[in-house]
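1st attempt posting a full record on here, be nice pls
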Amino acid sequence: MATAVLVVATLTATATPPLPAPPDPVPAGALAAVDATVTLPGVIDLDSCRAMALTNNKNLMITRERIRKAEYQSREAFAAYLPAFDFNGGYMYNQRNISIFGSDQMLPVKNFDLATQSYQFSVVKNPVTGEPIKGPDGQYIPEQIALIPKEAMTYNIHNVFFGAITLTQPVFMGGKIVAMNALTHAAERAARELHIAEAENVIYAVDAAYWQVVSLKAKHELAVSYVNLLDSLDRNVRLMYREGVATRSDVLSVNVKLNSAQVDLLKVRNGLVLSRMALAQVCGLPVNTVFTLADEDNDGAVPAEGVEPAGGYDMEAVYARRPDLRALEQGVEAARQQKRVALSDMLPGIAIVGSYEFMNPNMFDGFRRRFKGAFSVGAMVTIPLWHWGGNYNRYKAAESDEVIRALELSDARELVSLQVSQASFKMQEAYRTYHMTVTNLQSADENLRSATLGFREGVSTTDLVMEAQTAWLKAHSEQIDAMIDVQLCQTYLSKALGTLYQ
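the predicted structure (as tokens):
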């Protein structure tokens, strides 16, 4: 930029006063979102933008809630080791009472016979013959009876209350509880790794938006300098036209070029406004937030070169750092535990059960209308016998799922290896391109200086000066693009190596 300022000063060293700065290309009301602005104090650097995005990003909030959900599910699985206590109770209204007998019952009574030394039924005898008398039904008629009225054996069950407190302690469930705990732990670890992977995506998006603003700000300054160059050339050519040493065609050519540059400046300014809005949205701020970036005024500085060759990385260490691969590894572990859960359905299950049951009315001491209960303890065994291959096929399906997850992990590791190689080569190419643009920029500055001096001395034409200015603009623009590309390639390489979010 210093060369551009020098050239502008050289071209404007005339008696003609400089033209005022071009008007703001954003008309009032063209972008309604910029009306009510929110200004952030101070200078915002890249780390601050990353921190704001990591705090406000909705996808990261979702992944944090998924981690919390996985933690609760892990605690739920652990609770299966412990005894379960349950209470069941209820009330029932019955329309009718219950009666054991349909009518009054008359039972014969036995008397002790001294002769036989046993109890004998006492029956009615014929007073003449002394023989027992039979009734119409052919049965002997008892001399004495015990009367049990129907009402005595009728119980009121209109309102019945009942309840039970039960305890269940699993002893052996075929390994299902252990497998479910391991499964939920794997799911929790996978949720944490996916959170880290999403955080890396957010950081990469922030970096892209951040450097886009820096790039457009630099191009805006470049466009302003280019407009000033053409504006100075335009005034000089007009003076020369009035002196008769330039043609009208020269004036029109410079004027067309100046108008085109002003249109480009308008586009860059609008693009800069929109890119600031995009950065604010990624950071979780209102889109009308106004802030200054720390790298806006950088003069082309890039990180120091330290890129290893594509084959110089310890890929096992890279695999261990990549959160997406760690999440896939937890997926393989989850599939393995799911297979153990399916296997447990084919094994016996043993549990200890205990309960205290009570009801009103109760039958423990006759039929009484009050609460009374009793304890009971036992063991329960469940042994699967035959399910027409359902459990076995479920196990084989889980086994296939484990194989699928393992193959997906292997494929992902190969893709990561390719990604690291590509990122490394791209980073090296970005550095080489940047250094080439720096050299080209020096040549373009010298070319513009020579063309400007030749134009002042009358040995260069207007077309040659405009060509030199166009080459100067292109060289500066390519240098800005190369600088931003180095920054983004470095971020992408860090993401590929798993070191972006530490």
